[in-house]
Amino acid sequence: MKTAVKPVFQRILLKLSGEALVGDLEYGISPAVIGKVAKEVKEVRSLGVEVAIVIGGGNIYRGIAASAEGMDRTSADHMGMLATVINSLALQDALEKMEIFTRVMSAIEMNQVAEPYIRRRAVRHLEKGRVVIFAGGTGNPFFTTDTAAALRAMEVKADVILKATKVDGVYDTDPMIHKKAKKFEKLSYIEVLNRGLKIMDATAISLCMDNDLPIIVFNLTQKGNIARVVLGQKLGTIIGGN
Predict the structure, then answer these.
(1) Domains, the chain, ranges and CATH?
(2) At what angle do helices 145-155 and 119-127 cross, to 10 degrees?
(3) Cβ(56)–Cβ(16) under 8 Å?
(4) How far, CA to CA in Å, does 212 sit from each of 69, 187, 202?
(5) Per-residue DSSP letters for 93-155?
(6) How far is the C-alpha of 150 from the C-alpha of 153, rounded, in Å?
(7) What is the pLDDT of residues 133-173, one digit of tens each?
């Protein structure tokens, strides 16, 4: 009789980019992609792992890009926050179709569509086995959803941030362009900051460093990877330590 494999993390925060939801579309949300993400999350929940999620809004609207075109940065960032709410509601719908109890909690109050973010309530949802999706970023302009992910992960005492990307880890240059790009197995927070690696913004990395919260960067497009990471398989790049 085989011994059941136990997860190495009990509570995770999964960071998804909005672009990850586009699939083959030019923009917006691909039902096929969001369905696949929901299946992956269901697999992880079946292992008994508590799951929190932060999604970006870049597939719908990107505040930084709009501000570069002349829009007021505060207004642009507020629009970007609303885009994250749209993505969060779409993922909630996909999860609930798979009978996974899910709650969207928004940093911007909009009671008709999402619960307001209250830390103790979020923790209680996780303890009850519900997937919690944190929408609206931090609720403040000039902060990215990467920073929101780091902040929420620390507030709910997640064991790790799982940063899902289109590539299988962190490289010294863009592996999509440079065939000889070198992949890092492990990086310290300081190395990420000093090298200027664009994994997460500097504020998010600094928050994780100050609170010793590890980050694992891995490929979302390969089926079953979230569960593999949770079960301790060596995938992607681990960021942590000095």
Answers:
(1) 11-239 (3.40.1160.10)
(2) 70
(3) yes
(4) 37, 13, 15
(5) HHHHHTT--EEEEESS--TTTSEEP-HHHHHHHHHTT-EEEEESTTSSTT--HHHHHHHHHHH
(6) 5
(7) 999 999 999 999 999 999 999 999 999 999 999 888 999 88
